[in-house]
């Protein structure tokens, strides 16, 4: 435990805050050490991991160390609810029936829609293997539901590719008709939209993103915050009753549904899309938002009376890290105590 005191002393003395590059490299070293420890069947977190963390130079900062006058429990982080509980990527059909995609044959027809499943992706095709068009059949809506521990992709009828993160769902037509191509998202997804004459619209809660052929990430958090990050191309963001806000590559639009506040700022898009690479990567990110991601991926819940938004953390860890090690790491680097009580991880000050 002396090394943990060294860490505290190092932070208290105002040591230099490491760059993002140093933090990411340190995170990779931390991952390698964790794997080495597991191979040796280590039995305790102990001083060895503390030494690895000291070498990692992970920066943690508190915006405020004062407890709120009337602390209230933070909402439980949870997987985005679907029409029915699922334990593997599932396709919910127009009539409410569900289809476990891991059990579907490579090419099959479901309620008139020809689909192909391969490499964690479901694609909508016609019998000749071409993209399905709206004139070929009656339009039906499907919903793709992704549970904890999975990412999965779908190629829509127009060729647009959408990759969904764990705890997410996407509702879309099996063929596009009308004046626009519209889909509905809950959770997080990365879109690579095929250009077309009809605009592509992503509806997220009470907001929408109008797309003009582009690549971008959209995320709806459990706190009703919508984060839209544009990687390439051009989009327009519109909140309920608001005007469309043009967004350029490298910008993030943040919309707070509870207050209606909309803000735009420049960001490093690598952090918004890190989940596509199978890592948790953050730079000075609020702890409550990080726990939201962790809960969705592992299918666990967190609760706390602390102001978790006042705690910021920089980290770069693989999604293959066991949940026990992930929780221990967060507890160590935030100086918090995290205990599991009745299937819920409760966070308290030490």
What features would you describe in this structure?
By secondary structure, the protein is α+β, with helices and mostly antiparallel strands. It folds into 2 domains: 149 residues, Phage tail protein beta-alpha-beta fold, CATH 3.55.50; 181 residues, Jelly Rolls. It contains 6 helices and 25 strands. It has a 10-stranded mixed sheet with strand order 4-5-6-8-9-12-15-16-19-20, with no helix packed on it. It has a 9-stranded mixed sheet with strand order 3-2-7-10-11-13-14-17-18, with no helix packed on it. A 3-stranded antiparallel sheet has the order 1-23-21. α1 runs parallel beside α3 and α2 packs antiparallel against α3. The longest helix is centred in the N-terminal third of the chain and has 20 residues.
Q: Briefly, what is this?
A:
The chain contains 6 helices and 25 strands. The chain is α+β, with helices and mostly antiparallel strands and 350 residues long.
Between the first and last Cα atoms, what is the distance in angstroms?
15 Å
Overall form: globular
How many domains comprise the coordinates? Answer: 2
Number of helices: 6
Name of the top-level CATH class of the largest domain = Mainly Beta
Largest sheet geometry: 10 strands, mixed
Please count the beta strands (DSSP E, at least 2 residues each).
25
In CATH, the topology of the largest domain is named Jelly Rolls
- Strand sequence of the main sheet, in spatial order? 4-5-6-8-9-12-15-16-19-20
